[in-house]
Amino acid sequence: MTGTLVLVRHGQSEWNLKNLFTGWRDPGLTERGVAEAKAAGAKLAARGLKFDIAFTSALTRAQNTCQYILDATGQGDLETIRNAALNERDYGDLNGLNKDDARAKWGKEQVHIWRRSYDTPPPGGESLKDTGARVWPYYMHDMQPHVLRGETVLVAAHGNSLRALIMALEGISGEEIVNLELGTGVPIVYKLNADSTVASKEVLAG
Questions:
Q1: Which of 32, 74, 99, 195 lies 20 to 30 Å from 13, alpha-carbon distance?
Q2: Which residues participate in the annotated binding site for substrate?
Q3: Is residue 72 a contact partner of residue 47, using CB atoms and an 8 Å limit?
Q4: Cβ atoms within 10 Å, residue 143
Q5: Residue 165 is assigned to a structural domain of this protein
Q6: Average pLDDT value for residue range 76-94
Q7: CB of 162 within 8 A of CB of 66?
């Protein structure tokens, strides 16, 4: 039995547009972000995908992206689980700051380390490793069982929570995963084997 796991990073948010560290702050989607979410739903609907359950974070931009996708597949009332375990990485003292201003304050190299290292958190915030520490058990206990039963599961979340999840799914190292770029509103469709390994992966870009 093969289950399907679809991962989608939320559409562009207002703070993505303004080049701000967003983290656990809760801005909405831009018009482009709404269009990206609807386009993601259209791509999945065109594949004939129907979901059995959906998971998203406690943040509005991911929840709205999830809803637009479900509306596009004709499943606007599907059971959707919202949990902060899927939230974006908490950037701590960087939350709400312009990325250029942060570089001016702490230095380009230090900000790059905070953004792209695997296990060095910004002041008061989380590293990608810390983010994984909440994503991985939630996936194992709450999401993976649905996929292993052969169900089709939608996860609409954030760049770093999805990086952590992809790291576990594909066996990617901490050094490699920080270089993985996830486009906003781009669905990634995994087929999983009964032993939880990846049978196939398709990125629905363009």
A1: 74
A2: 9-16, 22-23, 61, 88-91, 99, 115-116, 159-160
A3: no
A4: 22
A5: yes
A6: 97
A7: no
Specify the amino acid at residue 121.
P
Structural domain of residue 176, as residue ranges? Answer: 3-89+131-203
How many domains, the chain?
A: 1
Over residues 139-158, the mean pLDDT reads: 97
**Would residue 113 count as lying in a domain?**
no
- Give the whole-angstrom CA distance, residue 65 versus residue 47: 18
For the beta carbon of residue 191, count every other beta carbon within 10 angstroms: 15
For 68, 73, 82, 122, 187, the CA distances from 77, given in Å and listed in that order, are: 11, 11, 14, 38, 20
pTM passes above 0.90: yes
Instruction: Write out the catalytic residue numbers.
Output: 10, 88
* 115, part of any domain: no
What is the phi/psi pair of residue 3, to 5°? Answer: -100, 165
